[in-house]
Amino acid sequence: MFVFCPKLFVILQHIFLIMQGLIFDIKRYAIHDGPGIRTTVFLKGCPLRCRWCHNPESQHLEPELMPQNRKLGDRTFVDNRTVGYTITPEALMKEIRKDHVFFEESGGGVTFSGGEPLLQAPFLLECLRRCKAENIHTCVDTAGAVHTPLLDEICQCTDTFLYDVKTAKEPTFKDYIGTPYSTVIDNLRRIAEAGTHIIARIPVIPGVNDSENEIDAIINLLAGIPQIHEVNLLPFHRTGADKYKRLGRTWDMGNTPNLKAEDLTSMQQRFVDAGFETKV
Ligand code: SF4
Question: What is the distance between the alpha carbons of residues 200 and 223, in angstroms, rounded to a whole number?
Answer without folding.
Answer: 11
